[in-house]
Amino acid sequence: MYVVIVGGGKVGFYLAKTLIEKKYEVTLVDWDFNKAERLKYELGECVMYASGSSIDGLEKAGCSRADVIVAATSDDEDNLVICQLGKKYFNVPKAVARISNPKNERIFAELGVGTTISGTSSIAEAIERYVAKQQLTTLLTFDHNEMVLLEAELEEDSPVVDKSLSEITLPYECVIALVLRGRNVLFAKGNTVLKPKDMVIAISTQKEQENLRKILLGDPEV
């Protein structure tokens, strides 16, 4: 999971520190050279001196491969520009904006920035929820690591919820083996209908893992 954070103030600094401690790949961008140098002393080479509200700056930060972009400056207008560039120009799946004025929350939502948060811990929690929602958990690898046994918990908005297994087209090298529903273990059959909170147990090749994830979990709403 790669997170680009724009804005090296207290919120950006502590968010970067928190995510680094959780083993995320992070780049923290700030357009103040002296501040960037101080941050680099604290956080290391993940800090970059660049304009985070420009295409060039975001490109240098590797935004084209980012999973999440966080606009953490103290200026709501800058944060809106950063999020819109990240989502529309670089196709970053998830954009999170810090807002100083709660009245701007509706404007951000109307312009496609679905997550607006004020505090460092809240932003970190939002990223954690996003990651958990889109992950498959590997239970076991076998056949020289070519095959994996996976589990995924379905949310209410998962694309396969309320569908029977016979209605779901899986990659050729994937199969759903079991469905765990509360304390019940259901053997996967064509007429098994998936429900929210079901834990799906599947077998897949390594190369089809991402396709299986998209089918079961979709792309989180952004």
- Could you name the CATH class of the largest domain? Alpha Beta
Largest sheet: 6 strands, parallel
Q: Enter the CATH topology name of the largest domain.
A: Rossmann fold
- Can you tell me the CATH superfamily of the largest domain? NAD(P)-binding Rossmann-like Domain
Write a structural description.
It comes from Pseudobacteroides cellulosolvens ATCC 35603 = DSM 2933. Residues 1-119 form the RCK N-terminal domain. GO terms for molecular function: potassium ion transmembrane transporter activity. Keywords: Ion transport, NAD, Potassium, Potassium transport, Transport. By secondary structure, the chain is of the alpha/beta class. It has 2 domains: 2-123, Rossmann fold; 133-217, 2-Layer Sandwich (Alpha-Beta Plaits), CATH 3.30.70. The protein has helices spanning 10-21, 33-43, 55-60, 76-89, 105-110, 120-133, 209-217; strands at 2-6, 25-30, 47-49, 68-71, 94-98, 115-117, 137-142, 147-153, 174-181, 184-187, 199-205. The strands form 2 sheets. The protein has a 6-stranded parallel beta sheet, with helices on both faces. Helix 1 (10-21) packs parallel to helix 6. It is elongated and about 60 Å long. The two termini are 16 Å apart.
Q: Which SSEs are present, and which pair or pack?
A:
Elements: E1 2-6, H1 10-21, E2 25-30, H2 33-43, E3 47-49, H3 55-60, E4 68-71, H4 76-89, E5 94-98, H5 105-110, E6 115-117, H6 120-133, E7 137-142, E8 147-153, E9 174-181, E10 184-187, E11 199-205, H7 209-217
Parallel strand pairs: 1-2, 1-4, 2-3, 4-5, 5-6
Antiparallel strand pairs: 7-8, 8-11, 9-10, 9-11
Helix pairs in contact: 1-6
